[in-house]
Amino acid sequence: xxxxxxxxxxxxxxxxxxxxxxxxxxxxxxxxxxxxxxxxxxxxxxxxxxxxxxxxxxxxxxxxxxxxxxxxxxxxxxxxxxxxxxxxxxxxxxxxxxxxxxxxxxxxxxxxxxxxxxxxxxxxxxxxxxxxxxxxxxxxxxxxxxxxxxxxxxxxxxxxxxxxxxxxxxxxxxxxxxxxxxxxxxxxxxxxxxxxxxxxxxxxxxxxxxxxxxxxxxxxxxxxxxxxxxxxxxxxxxxxxxxxxxxxxxxxxx
Length: 254
Known about the structure:
Oligomer: single chain
Mean pLDDT: 83
């Protein structure tokens, strides 16, 4: 057997075939040294065995090198996958709830339009609730109502301009933008307050009833998820007065 190899474009192309040697003498006239021939045969057999072992080792080495490269690629892919999963877990946005109901205990000072054309600030405690529903991502439509009461339920004097018993409600409509644990809520609202005064007459005391309505715009800032604190600065349009509502509460998400 004979193998001839040549390199073409950094690749080896090998051809194998049978090789015959034509001797110039006839077989009957040739004299050979059989021991020398046997020794040469033995050497060539050993040489061939060594070459075959080397070829097998090279094949195993090539397979091992290829396997190592595949293992490295697998390790890199697994590391990249773990990294991406960690990013998704660490930085993914929290699941948004579609609806929520909040209950709030608040305090605020409201400008009240008295019948004698005077304007007086009265402090109120409010117990309110608001509902919000998701419009688009992190933006909610919000509607709220609050019952307002004042601590002064009896007149200190019997003067006509002594007003007491302030109570009423607050309605608001607006939007809520959720950013992490914060909610920013621009709103438009209406307050309606009823109150009384007592006047002494020869026929006895007369109780008079009045009402005062105001419109306002405000922007609320809430911090917290289930339990929260909230502040809402308000601008009363007609009275041109400002006030701040402060409250605490809790929310139920659906």
